[in-house]
Amino acid sequence: MTQASDDTRLDTRLDTRLDGLVDLIVQLGSGNLSARLAPSEAGDSVDAVITGVNLFAEELDRVRRTLEQGPRTGAHDRADVADVAAGRPA
User: Fold this and answer.
1) Which of 79, 50, 51, 85 is nearest to 65 (CA)?
2) What is the DSSP letter of 77?
3) Which of the residues 20, 27, 48, 79 could staple to 35 if both were Cys, CB 3.0 to 4.6 A apart?
């Protein structure tokens, strides 16, 4: 195999992974906070971004579920929302 064909295969795999990452971000932006993308075995910077986006999505989903549970003793005010977003009990 030539270096050019190896480079083309690597570019194609990278493009496929980046397309998946863009699709994940679009899904999250559309409100599908359960969407995730599995990192590859490459363990490179693209996987680091994928992992970061997945962690961010998990946190957004957790905050949304907490807020959807509704008020425990009254309406959530801005401080309650900020507490939930920071991972503190509301």
Assistant:
1) 85
2) -
3) 27
